[in-house]
Amino acid sequence: MTNMIDDSIKIYHNPACGTSRNTLGLIRNSGVEPTIILYLETPPSRQTLLQLIAEMGISVRSLLRQNVEPFTVLGLSEDKFSDSELIDFMLEHPILINRPIVVTPLGTCLCRPSESVLDILPNPQLGAFTKEDGEVVIDANGLRVKNS
Q1: DSSP code per residue over 41-109
Q2: Residues 6+ apart with CB under 8 A from 104
Q3: Which of 14-18, 41-45, 144-148 has the lowest average pLDDT?
Q4: How far is residue 143 from each of residues 28, 29, 74, 124, 127, measured CA to CA in Å?
Q5: Which residues are catalytic?
Q6: Considering the entire predicted model, what is its pTM?
Q7: Is residue 34 classed as helix, strand or coil in its secondary structure?
């Protein structure tokens, strides 16, 4: 089955990240090929980043990825930086932007965990989906599996 390209669905993606790969897999499992933005190679502009944060309804700090070297080296755990300064750091070091961020006509979401993308996908899942770690997320009928 070939997925339909849908320009209204975008993923800010890091192919080295399992959560990002799982999220992309769930989008594709809905029959859609999204626009893939490799944000480490093509970082969003300041305006786009601010727009994404506003659409997600989160704080600038909550988009900041903490378990990467620039976070520690720059002392970003300290609460002394303004939102504007935090955005500057993310633009200078895109690895600091937490991911994946998915934009669809139904909303914008930081998809951690990856299955949170299901809340904003316009199309249903077309079949079974198992995450890379072996967790079954979607059953053979395309229905979400409730894991405890």
Answers
A1: TSPPPHHHHHHHHHHHT--TGGGB--SSHHHHHTTTTSTT--HHHHHHHHHH-GGGB-S-EEEETTEEE
A2: 8, 9, 120, 121, 122
A3: 144-148
A4: 15, 12, 44, 8, 8
A5: 17
A6: 0.93
A7: strand
Nearest C-alpha neighbor of 10 from the set 45, 38, 31, 51: 38
Query: Where does residue 142 fall: left (phi above 0), alpha (psi -120 to 50 degrees), or beta otherwise?
Result: left
pLDDT tens-digit series, residues 17-61: 999 999 999 999 999 999 999 999 999 999 999 999 999 999 999
Cβ-count burial of 103 within 10 angstroms (0-12 exposed, 13-18 middle, 19+ buried)? buried
Cα(89)–Cα(93) distance, rounded to whole angstroms? 6
pLDDT of 115 above 60: yes
23 membership: H or E segment, kind and range: helix 18-28
What percentage of the chain carries pLDDT values higher than 70? 98
Counting every residue written for the chain, the total comes to: 148
